[in-house]
Amino acid sequence: MVLTLKDEDGRPYMIRIKQRGMEHYDPERVALMTEGPPPQPEGRKLEEIPTFMQPWKRFPLNFPDNSHLPIFGEKELFRGTSNTIALEFKNKGNDFFRRRKWWDAREAYIEAFEFGPDDPELVEVLWLNMAAANIELKYWPGVLGPAAKAITLNLKSIKGYFRAARALVHYERYEEATDCCKR
């Protein structure tokens, strides 16, 4: 849980309190081990959507995990807006990535999302970076979802298409990988 407050001078700060619990999964979805692509903005034409992201396609299910969470009930104080705090975590993740600490990079990007950034460019970069870290970890179920979310935000996301294509090749979905490369 993240609380947004203001200090005496009106400057924003956030308190993150770790709680037990995670997203609940539909048992049928878990049994299939797949999930659908992210919803597309209204008015987007089907031909604009990469074939791997079309509504009837399925992704390997990307189970989130709790590895990045500190001890339950732990409180952390962060100064700034949701975007500035998320940017700090993105930069921390990028530093880990440069040092080839892929898991730590991925965890930093996950933490950035906890603060609910609303800058579309920052959110796109976070999804792209998470996909890149998952590629380096060879955690293929965690590549298609983030790449698709980045592409949903920006249909011209070359990195999103490239990262999705790499995962699609791993799953031997060559026609869809080719479609990504042509965009």
Automatic annotation (TrEMBL):
InterPro entries: TPR-like_helical_dom_sf. GO terms for cellular component: cytosol; nucleus. GO terms for biological process: protein folding. It comes from the Eukaryota. Coiled coil: none annotated. One of its GO terms (molecular function) is Hsp70 protein binding. This is Uncharacterized protein. It comes from Rhizoctonia solani.
